[in-house]
Write a structure and sequence with these properties.
By secondary structure, this protein is mainly α. The protein contains 14 helices and no strands. About 80% of the residues lie in helices and about 0% in strands. The longest helix is centred in the N-terminal third of the chain and has 14 residues. It is elongated and about 70 Å long. The protein starts with a helix and ends with a helix.
């Protein structure tokens, strides 16, 4: 099993698949092998098969947390946040230190209009993994929705203190400055964010809006 996991982590999918399949031939109830095979199926873009393997892992061991988290990731990608939320709730219950599952759950809760609990989860994520900037960005956005511009600005500044090029920090700061109606500075932050993450739809949209407001309509259209 450990060898198959190592092969999976190295991206040697054919060998990992054989390893997990061999395990299941001798032990069909091995939850870890089902979960590992599910990850292989994702790499093969066989999503229904992946979901079957994750469900088999849960059926084999209802307390096997990685299967819930992995299945939730697939459902998020398949635009099924409601089902993903149920799985993430279980994953977080089983493994409170799974910061990635907590982050995913927090994002779903924000979209569902439950920022208070999302706020608590994001603060837990930051404690568990202080270097995970996406959690600070989401926390800053919750602050913005509450009108706490100073708190959001502090989150951005903390990120910039650790990484002056962090796209997450520049995206958040751009939103803070836009709320303050400092369009010129906000556009500069958009540009810095796009330098690190040129495909950010949010920053392209904000930059276009600000250019339009500055009567730079040709640039806004582009």
């Amino acid at each position: 099993y450990l060898r198959a996991r190592a092969l999976l982590d190295k991206g040697e999918m054919d060998s990992a698949e054989k390893g997990f399949t061999d395990i299941l031939a001798n032990n069909p109830k091995c939850a870890g092998a089902h979960e590992g095979l599910g990850e292989v199926r994702i790499s093969q873009q066989k999503i229904p098969k992946a979901l079957e393997e994750f469900q088999a892992a849960i059926d084999s061991d209802p307390n096997f947390e990685p299967a819930y988290a992995a299945m939730a990731e697939v459902l998020i990608a398949e635009s099924q946040p409601g089902k993903a939320r149920e799985l993430l709730e279980k994953a977080v219950e089983l493994e409170p230190r799974d910061w990635h599952a907590k982050y995913r759950l927090a994002v779903i809760l924000v979209d569902a209009g439950q920022p208070a609990r999302a706020n608590d989860l994001l603060r837990d994520v930051i404690k568990l993994n202080p270097k995970f900037l996406a959690a600070r960005e989401q926390l800053g956005k919750i602050m913005l929705r509450r009108g706490d511009l100073e708190g959001a600005s502090q989150q951005a500044e903390q990120m910039l203190g650790g990484d002056p090029q962090a796209a997450e920090a520049h995206r958040l700061m751009a939103l803070v400055l836009w709320r303050k109606r400092d369009l010129e500075s906000s556009m500069a932050e958009c540009a810095l964010a796009l330098a690190s993450d040129p495909d950010s739809e949010a920053m392209l949209g904000l930059q276009a809006l600000e250019l339009w407001q500055e009567n730079r309509k040709k640039e806004a259209r582009e």
